[in-house]
Amino acid sequence: MHATALIAEDEALLAAEMRAQLARIWPELEIVAQVGHGAAAVEAALRLRPQLLFLDIRMPGMTGLEAAQAIAEDWPDGVTAPLIVFATAYDQYAVEAFNHAAVDYLLKPIDARRLAQTCQRARAALAAQRDPNAAVAAPWDAALGQLRSLLATPTLSGRSGVDAPERLQVIQAGVGNAIHLIPIDDVVYFEAADKYVRVITADREHLIRIALRDLLPQLDPQRFWQIHRGTVVRADAIAVAQRDEAGKLALTLRGRPERLVVSRLYAHRFKAM
Amino acid sequence: MTHVEPDRWHYLRHAAVVACFSAVVALGLVIAKGGDWLLQFIYAEAIGLSIWACTDFGRLLFKTDPESNWPTGWRMIVMQVSAVIVGYAIGTSIGDLYCGCSTFELWQRSPRTFAGYFVLCVAVTVAICFFFLTRGRDQRRLRQIATAQRDASEAQLKLLESQLEPHMLFNTLANLRVLIGIDPPRAQAMLDQLIAFLRATLSGSQQPFHALSAEFARLSDYLQLMQVRMGDRLQTQLALPRELADLPVPPLVLQPLVENAIKHGLEPHVGGGRIEISAERTGERIVLRVRDTGAGLSAGAAAAGTRFGLDQVRRRLATIYGAAATLDLRPAGGGEGGTDAIVTLPA
Fold it and tell me: Which of A195, B55, B66, B261 could form an S-S bond across to B265 if both were Cys, CB 3.0 to 4.6 Å?
């Protein structure tokens, strides 16, 4: 059965070997891209839309899980979601999380029999997708639940496994040679900007030098809701959540004119009581 | 030390021990003075168990020492004296109820006999309490020893795990497995480096010092292993002046710094970078430097991950050199970003 796949693996030898193994096990599988880091995986996946993604967990720049999240959020509507297989050398927490989320994964060095099993499963899933009699499920439904479960695993999502850090009460932002103190209640939302985070209050914005993933554990998850991989909103600053004609969910805020887009990973939070 | 909340069996075990003691006392009294053995037995058990009940109830009310679950100091004395008096009164009343006579009349008729009973009762109580207290202390000591041993072996395991990071090991093996198929000579070279690295790591803690040249050779093994994995993304530069080659240093003292530079500096950096390891003598000091051009120090998750390795290095330096050796971590200069880890040793 012909299918397309992407391999994201930062170690060139391992990527080549995986390619060779796949060629033996599944000759009709076409590797449309082989990339060495997470951001490249996201770019290539969204451009080429392969049916199968092999994502190494530990990659430079962006982990395999972060890449999977970005792909899931930006994957176009109406296109069948890709199947994702993670790969890791050693990580007991990851393996626990994969098993818990019922996600397929490979342990490196990759055992040929195990890879054959994975390919078998992928073939079956792709065949089911093609079956015209099968009920057409929304393309992401099953995968989103799995991703949410993985993202809730602190060690996997790149956050340090240290005990719950103290909740931030005040944000300290450098402005020139002054430090501005912003009470956490004044923040309307946080937005990731590369290695920085933009802190947006009703009347100002500041840049703080911390990655959003490191800031997140310091925020009260009851009060600050993640709605996108790059956006965290104070829940009581949300006025309305509404779907537009294209089915995209967007938020209107109290105190800010802009509308914020909710990714499909977090849309399940917004339900009428 | 953690607070151990005794289960209900703890109290019931006490009751059983007290019941046995009381039976022995009753037997002793029957042998010494004769009389109705059942009556003695009932008195002894009633008094013994009443005092036990008052004591353990008092402990629950007034315990101040969370470790032993006994009150301490004067509270202990007041609690125990009250428990003996109240328990004795209750137990005797129960016995009196059974035989239909009154022991408290004895107080008028023969104060000596009554006092004798009471003193016997106090002596037995003190003996039992002493038994429980020392036994409890022994058990606590055993628990403490077990906890300390567990902590020590956990620390050792953590150290070994940090040196033989499983993620590194399995990725290296995965690469080796590929090379065996496509490039056997290179696979053999890689295996030799892995063997040298493993030998150094596993025996490193056994010898107190090795030559700086040996340290550099081990770091070079490790870096070459990493280079197979990272390819062009890792460049290395090792500079060891000849006059410092024989300088004794603690084995693998720089290893955690190089690992940090790779793990938190270069590996997360998409473009990779360079690691420079150098040694120089400046005046009365030896300066060892591990420098990377990677992601740089961040306030976030990486910092937590590096801490264990750094603590380990600092602790080893402090044990060997005291305050004369230091480890500093700072953003690297030179406009390439990255981190500078600097160890200074007395020359």
Answer: B261
Q: Which residues of B touch A109 (CB under 8 A)?
A: 170, 173-174, 177-178
A218, closest residue in chain B (CA to CA): B300
CA distance to A31, B242, B290, B294, per residue, from A20 (Å):
11, 46, 38, 32
Per residue in B147-158, pLDDT tens?
888 877 776 676
- Residue B101 CA: distances (Å) to CA of A176, B36, B39, B92, B115: 95, 14, 11, 10, 18
A156 domain residue, yes or no = no
Fill in the amino acid letter for B289.
Answer: R
Do A25 and A127 lie in one domain? The reply is yes
- Check whether residue A118 and residue A177 sit in a common domain: no
Helix axis angle for B111-163 and B301-321, nearest 10°, is 100
Mutate to test the interface with A, among B171, B177, B182, B292 (most CBs of A within 10 A): B171
A49/A114 same-domain check: yes
**Model-level pTM?**
0.70
Q: What is the pLDDT of residues B112-125, one digit of tens each?
A: 877 887 788 788 88
Query: Do residue A158 and residue B301 have CB atoms under 8 angstroms apart?
Result: yes
With an 8 Å Cβ cutoff, are B299 and A158 in contact?
no
Q: Taking CB atoms and an 8 Å limit, are A214 and B301 in contact across chains?
A: yes
Helices (H), B73-211: 73-99, 103-109, 111-163, 166-182, 184-203
Q: Do A61 and B268 touch (CB under 8 A)?
A: yes
- If we measure between CA atoms, which residue out of B192, B166, B168, B167 comes closest to residue B179? B192
Structural domain for A234, as ranges: 170-269
- How many domains are contained in chain A? 2
Asked if the structure places residue A99 within a domain, the reply is yes
Domains of chain B in start order, with CATH, are 8-155 (no CATH), 166-346 (3.30.565.10)
Could you give the ipTM of this predicted complex? Answer: 0.78
CB A228 within 8 A of CB A263: yes
Are both A176 and A264 inside the same structural domain? yes
What confidence score (pLDDT) does residue A165 get?
66
Listed in sequence order, the residues at least 6 apart from B83 whose beta carbon sits closer than 8 Å to its beta carbon are B51, B54, B55, B58, B125
Is A16 close to B178, i.e. CB distance below 8 A?
A: yes
CA A212 to chain B, closest CA, distance in angstroms equals 10
| A61/B269 touch (CB, cutoff 8 Å), yes or no | yes
